């Protein structure tokens, strides 16, 4: 079972990733990534989806039917580790993106049904937090968390230093009728510094009916339909990933795998 989408050469629109619910075999999450040249224009229709456009790297002007967001974007690499500029686009809208520098653009999508307006998500609107301890530390940018308005989408970016783990201890959010979890499909868009790097990511269930280990490289996408999904970096390469989640209930609620939950406790890190 393939849960990885390898990066492709840019098509005529600059698209390098195209993950649809049909391709992933699920219901909610879609993800595209583009590499646009300075001066290039990209036009998209949201149709029955809501979009979150994340400027992973570069500058652009963005215009929808009823709103304009000129000259946004500041960081030229995600590894500057500053929060990005993003734009929320509601369903049944049109959007035009003009690249004002070379631009790496992520287009996150999920079902839209409400009446929210298009809006800018500026760096100062992004919640920044550090999680974990020991070799399980990461920097988190909450771009579109569940306490900010959207119909379905949850969007977050995570930085993990070389030799560390994240999305760990192993956790899952795949139960639709559980008091302890919400059902959320998820994609990981991976980047590495330096670019030749890779990470190890495992997706597995308690009964091991799903148990897949992958090595995502720069700009690959890992799809998580269910189960646990930890990431481990390797020496020499820092990892960034952009997560997109969506499901029938817009709430991030998960459970830890019992065997590894102790890593959250005072027993870790262990003294040498």
TrEMBL record:
GO terms for biological process: inositol catabolic process. Its EC number is 5.3.1.30. It comes from the Bacteria. GO terms for molecular function: 5-deoxy-D-glucuronate isomerase activity; glucuronate isomerase activity. This is 5-deoxy-glucuronate isomerase. It comes from Candidatus Pantoea soli. Keywords: Isomerase. PANTHER family: 5-DEOXY-GLUCURONATE ISOMERASE. It holds the Pfam family KduI.
């Amino acid at each position: 079972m393939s849960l990885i989408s390898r990066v492709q050469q840019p098509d005529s629109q600059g698209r390098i990733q195209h993950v649809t619910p049909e391709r992933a075999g699920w219901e909610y999450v879609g993800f595209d990534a583009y590499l646009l040249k300075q001066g290039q224009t990209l036009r998209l229709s949201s149709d029955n989806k809501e979009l979150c456009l994340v400027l992973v790297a570069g500058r652009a002007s963005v215009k929808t039917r009823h709103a304009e967001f000129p000259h946004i974007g500041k960081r030229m690499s995600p590894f500057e580790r500053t929060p990005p500029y993003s734009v929320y686009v509601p369903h049944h809208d049109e959007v035009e993106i003009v690249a004002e520098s070379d631009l790496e653009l992520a287009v996150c999508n999920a079902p839209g049904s409400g009446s929210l307006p298009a809006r800018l998500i500026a760096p100062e609107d992004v919640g920044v937090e550090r999680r974990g301890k020991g070799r399980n530390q990461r920097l988190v940018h909450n771009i579109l968390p569940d306490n900010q308005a959207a119909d379905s989408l949850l969007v977050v970016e995570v930085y993990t230093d070389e030799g560390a783990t994240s999305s760990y201890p192993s956790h899952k959010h795949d139960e639709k009728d559980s008091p302890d979890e919400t059902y959320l499909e998820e994609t990981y868009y991976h980047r590495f510094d330096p670019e030749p790097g890779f990470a190890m990511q495992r997706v597995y269930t308690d009964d091991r009916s799903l148990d897949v280990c992958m090595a995502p490289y720069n700009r690959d996408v890992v799809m998580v339909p269910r189960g646990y999904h930890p990431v481990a970096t390797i020496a020499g390469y820092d990892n960034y990933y952009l997560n997109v989640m969506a499901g029938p209930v817009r709430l991030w609620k998960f459970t830890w795998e019992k065997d590894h939950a102790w890593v959250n406790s005072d027993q870790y890190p262990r003294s040498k």
